[in-house]
Design a protein that fits this description.
Elements (H helix, E strand, L loop, with lengths): L7 H10 L2 E5 L8 H11 L3 E5 L5 E2 L2 E2 L11 E6 L6 H8 L4 E6 L6 H9 L3 E3 L4 H8 L1
Parallel strand pairs: 1-2, 1-5, 5-6, 6-7
Antiparallel strand pairs: 3-4
Helix pairs in contact: 1-5, 3-4
Length: 137
């Protein structure tokens, strides 16, 4: 199976509509890519919710241990976890109210992709949300 992402135009529309991004694996270390990418998205006006059970906060926002700890709708779940962990995150994603499952650049899991697509979800894998945001502004 091949991962097929939405077109750049569709990604642009997703990013224009989205307001709230839950970031799974967001680090509170400014040297980490997850922090830098999430900070850029926060600076661009998105509400960032850190999802990481081992930190208290990141980017000035209290962290939650899991996606299920977030109240209300989440526009995008942006994942910074190893590819082999994407299936577990995808299963949790299916239990919450969210529109888009986004795995960062370098992250692909065909089993997670297939599960989410079969359930009718929009899935983006192996793309950097910060880069896509810059390209579609």
């Amino acid at each position: 199976m091949t991962i097929e992402n939405p077109s750049r135009e569709e990604i642009g529309a997703i990013l224009k509509k989205a307001k709230k991004i839950a970031v799974v694996g967001l680090s509170n270390n400014p040297e980490r890519t997850s922090y830098q990418v999430s900070k850029a998205m926060q600076d661009a006006g998105y509400e960032i919710i850190p999802v990481n059970p081992v930190i208290d906060e990141a980017l000035g926002v209290k962290a939650v241990a899991s996606l299920k700890d977030i109240n209300g709708h989440i526009d995008i779940v942006n994942v910074f976890r190893r590819s082999e962990q994407l299936l577990d995150v995808a299963k949790e994603f299916l239990e919450i109210d969210s529109d888009i499952f986004w795995a960062q650049l370098g992250l692909v899991n065909e089993e997670a992709y297939k599960l989410l697509k079969e359930k009718g979800n929009t899935v983006i894998m192996d793309r950097c949300i910060k880069v896509e945001h810059a390209l579609t502004k």
